[in-house]
Amino acid sequence: MRVGVLLLPTDPWSETVKLAQRLERLGYAHIWTYDHLSWRRYRDHPWHAATPWLTGLAAATTTVRLGTMVASPTIRHPVTLAKEAMTLDHISGGRFTLGVGAGGTGFDAEVFGGEAPTPVTARGPAERVRRRYGPALAPASHVLRR
User: Fold this and answer.
1) Could you read off the pLDDT of 9-29 as tens digits, one per residue?
2) Structure pTM?
3) Which 3-state string (H, E, C) describes the chain?
4) CA–CA separation, 38 vs 24, rounded Å?
5) N- or C-end of the chain: fewer Cβ atoms within 10 A?
């Protein structure tokens, strides 16, 4: 059995690195973080972006897998998400798992100042991007299928 842990991207970086390295030494198999713009409980505190935060952890660790829990297609352009995932997977030496959710209109929509696109309305642009840029995104397709 493999055991992982969810870390919130809220702590100072030096503390985060020490904790991630300790978890790796203790044998944890994976570290996950939420890919949100913020969180109600932490609205007045730093909430770091998931992709650069995980990329930093990839550079600070060697064996633990890293992942998003979950990336929302309603707040990310699919090409940008695919390129970020491909880069993170490359830097981590293949240790990245991209968790993608259906999206929704929760607190992230409030951060935007209104209603975020629903998964149904976000699907149209994502499908057009897939058709137009599909061949260019082929190197990232292995990350998106994991």
Assistant:
1) 999 999 999 999 999 999 999
2) 0.76
3) CCCEEECCCCCCHHHHHHHHHHHHHCCCCEEEECCCCCCHHHCCCCCCCHHHHHHHHHHHCCCCEEEECCECCCCCCHHHHHHHHHHHHHHCCCCEECCECCCCCCHHHHHHCCCCCCHHHHHHHHHHHHHHHCCCCHHHHHHHHC
4) 26
5) N
What does the pLDDT look like over 24-34, one tens digit per residue?
A: 999 999 999 98
Q: Locate tokens 């297609």: which residue?
A: 73
Among residues 93, 117, 92, 98, which one has the least CA distance to residue 106?
Answer: 117
Query: Token digits for 61?
Result: 């660790």
CA pair distance 48, 112, nearest whole angstrom: 16
State how far Cα 66 lies from the chain centre. Answer: 9
CB 50 within 8 A of CB 71: yes
The Cα angle at residue 73 between residues 71 and 77, in degrees rounded to 5: 105
- Asked if 7 contacts 19 with a C-beta cutoff of 8 angstroms, the reply is yes
